[in-house]
Specification:
The chain has 396 residues and is an alpha/beta fold. The protein is built from 10 helices and 16 strands. Pfam families: His_Phos_1.
């Protein structure tokens, strides 16, 4: 049975939207949404191959390698898998939440190309910030602007959010040094906020992240599982039926947890290449871990501001004039688009950037209109070195 409480106010879509949604069914007095969630490991990373030694940026970004050609291919294949193997009755995927590390960003963009959905970058699903980062604490991955320049060049057909700094990156960098246990709890907690908020907004969601994150989330959905090998481009697809509203009262229902016996049961399908062992002795420990997770006030304070309670309520895209993007990224000459503001309305950092960006959009639009008449708006889009330590899986 779902562990639910009455919400103080209606959140997400209204009654008419919910009752007419293709992914919603009526069971007695409850409207139930069939949600799909996919968690994907990035594709093959360049530093796992001999080609890394000749990569010109390897010393500048030792912890942020790009994908290999095989990595790009594998990520596209994941996109086709998610497109064609959606669990029966589940709503199609509508948004991708991705780690900002380049290997994940490129993987997410390859998947987004296939599914034609936007990408949101979130530091909270980023790499374990362990001892391997001791010499790269200040620059673990590319900045918003640096990542934007790469994506503008290589993925001009993928939708993503931009702000005054470059691509929108929500979430925060973990505190150094982060242990495997701390990182797994971060992954599990963040996945819960993403999944729960997506369900509130009637969304199915893809999370593109790292091997330990995939394992951490899967093992709370199926507590007897032990994922012992997670290759590049591995994934799992999970589906559940979650109660979202009472028909009689039109009152929203809100979950306390997406894991465990009090949450809707997950059907989980693992990638054929993932090696999984079943050990029922793990269940009690995982239940204790879940109880600890649910009362972790420190994580709630640190990650809540960047959750997706309202962030993914709308997947519509606002088209932006070419001149606006040129103002943000002067070395690029593409036309792009950004996710609408309602996707980020609950993030105070994003609100600040959106205020700045709206001002710039207005100024550029006014300038362009006065000099060239009404401009035509075009649709355009942009959107682990191995950790050989006991802190995580051998190859992240």
């Amino acid at each position: 049975m779902n562990c639910l409480r009455w919400s103080k106010k209606t959140q997400g879509p209204d009654y008419d939207t919910i009752v007419n949604h293709a992914g919603v069914t009526s069971v007695n007095d409850v409207l139930t949404f069939r949600q799909a969630v996919a968690v994907v490991r990035h594709g093959e990373r360049l530093d796992s191959t001999p080609a890394w030694s000749s990569y010109p940026e390897r010393t500048l970004w030792p912890m942020d390698p790009p994908l290999t050609e095989q990595g790009h291919f594998g990520s596209r294949e994941v996109g086709h898998h998610l497109e064609h193997d959606l669990p029966e009755g589940s709503d199609p995927f509508e948004v991708i939440i991705s780690s900002p590390y380049l290997r994940c960003a490129e993987s997410a963009c390859q998947i987004a190309r296939v599914l034609k959905i936007p990408v949101v970058f979130d530091r909270d699903v980023g790499e374990i910030f362990g001892d391997a980062f001791r010499d790269a604490q200040s620059n673990p991955h590319r900045s918003s602007k640096e990542l934007a320049e790469i994506l503008v060049r290589d993925f001009p057909d993928v939708k993503y959010a931009v702000d005054a700094d470059g691509v929108q990156m929500v979430g925060s960098q973990p505190r150094f040094p982060e242990t495997l246990r701390q990182a797994r709890r971060r992954f599990q907690f963040k996945a819960q906020t993403i999944i729960g908020a997506a369900a509130t907004q009637l969304k199915s969601v893809v999370i593109v992240t790292h091997a330990d994150a995939l394992s951490a989330v899967a093992c709370l959905m199926k507590m007897s599982w032990d994922l012992v090998d997670i290759p590049f481009s591995a994934c799992f697809i999970a589906a559940r039926s979650v109660e979202v509203m009472r028909k009689s009262s039109h009152r929203s229902l809100k979950e306390k947890t997406v894991y465990g016996e009090r949450a809707p049961s997950w059907g989980v399908t693992l990638d054929a290449h993932v090696q999984c062992e079943v050990d029922n002795r793990l269940v009690q420990k995982r239940r204790r871990d879940l109880r600890t997770l649910l009362v972790d006030t420190e994580l709630a304070k640190r990650l809540y501001r960047h959750d997706f309670e309202n962030d993914i309520s709308d997947a519509h895209v606002r088209h932006v004039l070419n001149g606006t993007i040129e103002a943000l990224f002067p070395n690029q000459h593409h036309v792009h688009s950004v996710i609408s503001e309602s996707q980020f309305e609950d993030c105070s950092v994003a609100r600040k950037h959106w205020k700045h960006l709206r001002t710039n959009l207005w100024k550029v639009s006014e300038s362009t209109s006065s000099s060239a008449g009404d401009p035509k708006t075009h649709q355009g889009t942009v959107a682990d070195s191995h950790l050989e330590s006991s802190d995580g899986l051998r190859s992240l």
